Amino acid sequence: MAAAALLRGAAPGRGGPAWRWWLRAAPRCRLAHSFRSPGGDPTAGATWACFRLDGRTLLRVRGPDAAPFLLGLLTNELPLPGPAAWGAPPPACAGYAHFLNVEGRTLYDVILYGLQEHSEEVSGFLLECDSSVQGALQKHLALYRIRRKVTVEPHPELRVWAVLPSSPEACGNTPLQQSAGAAVILIRDPRTACMGWRLLTQDEGPAVVSESRLGDLWDYHQHRYLQGVPEGVGDLPPGVALPLESNLAFMNGVSFTKGCYIGQELTARTHHMGVIRKRLFPVRFLDPLPASGVTPGATVLTASGQTVGKFRAGQGNVGLALLWSEKIKGPLHIRASEGAQVALAASVPDWWPTVSK
User: Residue 295 and residue 304: Cα distance in Å, rounded?
Assistant: First the structure.
């Protein structure tokens, strides 16, 4: 896949409402590896692995003005619930978006869950965010609420889980069924099919998902980095990351046809210019890392010493780096804090759209 094919934005049609993602055919992708079962768990043959994401938390936004309020702040359309079947609860739906500052840089990445409030004929939303910035996000929302009829509050009753197939072949054997209720929401991850499902529940994940087991959180983050999916403020530093360079369009997280929102001008201008020269790429270290690891923000260099970009964040021998798309093919390295030169390789994920082959 030529790196030049990535210099333009997402393919036509990618800017539509993210909540419609699950209606489209799932793009091809492969899992990074089969997830290990810690301690010789007898559920090693389970179809699904459930990962409890203590680093993610939920805010609840509801009230008559909740929808227009959020529309003015988010990069994407809202995941509005569809009509409910007779006697059944309204279906949940999910979307992905960023909150931006006035300069157009990312503040917070969120997964939104649209829910029909039974007590009111309006929609309510759960916002999944990095737990370390829950208070900051709540203050950000309060800043723009003014006199709108909106309530924003933490929602600790539900915990966030990721559900991934234990192996590339396993998910076809026992498909999951989307569900929504007061105690359980199970829905496809709106960013990419490679990230499986999102589960919000009061219970333990393996108790809710049949033929599943508790997964090691290390495996979840390894898989996420190998697939090039940023998540949280470590991967998307507030006020630093640019949404399109962070592949927001690839992850169905921006609409270029919706109304105005905070920070829209730079994002829209970059999209319509049609060229995104730098992107957040998955990288793998080819040499042993020094004991101190690699510092976020470390410069990535070519063999001749030319700057290609900066390392953003990672775990073990994998991570993310913001790199010039035209320069990722040759040998790359980082000079670690102890003076060691560590070789690395950047890759283009299978699930990214391409303009041409």
Answer: 22
Amino acid identity for residue 345 in this structure? A
Q: What's the whole-model pTM score?
A: 0.84
Residues 15-56: tens digit of each pLDDT: 333 332 222 233 334 444 455 555 545 455 688 999 999 999
> Parallel, antiparallel, or unpaired: how do β-strands 212-214 and 48-52 relate?
parallel
Cα 144 to Cα 67, 127, 147, 151: the distances in Å are: 13, 16, 9, 12
Q: What is the pLDDT of residues 269-314, one digit of tens each?
A: 888 888 899 999 999 999 998 888 889 999 999 999 999 999 999 9
List, in order of start, the domains of the chain with CATH numbers. Answer: 49-81+90-227 (3.30.70.1400), 277-351 (2.40.30.110)
Phi, psi of 226 (to 5 degrees): -65, -30
Q: Shortest CA distance to 79 belongs to which of 188, 231, 211, 171?
A: 188
